[in-house]
Amino acid sequence: MDNDEIICDCNEVYKSTIVKAIKEKGLKTVDEVGEETEAGTVCGQCQDDIQDILDDING
Q1: Contact (Cβ atoms closer than 8 angstroms) between residue 50 and residue 20
Q2: CA distance 14 to 30
Q3: pLDDT (tens digit, 0 to 9) for every residue of the chain, 59 residues total?
Q4: φ and ψ at residue 55, rounded to 5 degrees
Q5: Which CATH number is 6-58 given?
Q6: Consecutive H or E run containing 55
Q7: Residue ranges of the domains in the chain?
Q8: Long-range CB contacts for residues 10-14, cutoff 8 Å, separation at least 24
């Protein structure tokens, strides 16, 4: 993926990891992404970014 970036600083989770998990597992919620990748599970600051990625992929 071009311009891969860290979405979750607390757990060092990259956008590509989140996108892959959403596509492979059919994830629909920020909580599901957190369960799979640990993104958004510490301070929660990146949860809006995770939701934006979910919206982009799932519509």
Answers
A1: no
A2: 15
A3: 457 999 999 999 999 999 999 999 999 999 999 999 999 999 999 999 999 999 999 99
A4: -65, -40
A5: 1.10.10.1100
A6: helix 47-58
A7: 6-58
A8: 10/41, 10/42, 10/43, 10/46, 11/37, 11/38, 11/39, 11/41, 11/42, 13/37, 13/38, 13/39
One-letter amino acid identity for 26?
Answer: G
Alpha helices (H) along 6-46: 15-25, 30-37
The answer, as to whether pTM is greater than 0.85, is: yes
Tokens 């990259």 belong to residue: 14
Tokens 């994830």 sit at which residue?
Answer: 27
Q: SS3 of 14, please?
A: strand
In whole angstroms, give the CA distance from residue 9 to residue 56: 21
